[in-house]
Known about the structure:
single chain; mainly alpha
Amino acid sequence: MPMRNDAPGSPGLARRRWLLLGIGIGVAMVAAMFALPRIPQDPGYHNFADTRPWLGIPNFLDVASNLPFLVVGLLGLILVFPLLGHATWHAYKAVR
């Protein structure tokens, strides 16, 4: 007789428990956020090194300095996803 999806030890029950745990942690974090006082921010924090606008973008060089991180991240994703291949996807589906 096949196991029901909610039977003890079934993958469906374990997945439901993880989902409920994640939701519970999220609700606790939001409750803590509203219950605790604000953390003061130093006004000097927003004094960026380059305040010149360019192409309508304020603090352009501070913003543009993050573009290499975007490029490296995208290259990493492009290089890693083909390595995972179909075998990983089929193994994942078999476990579910």
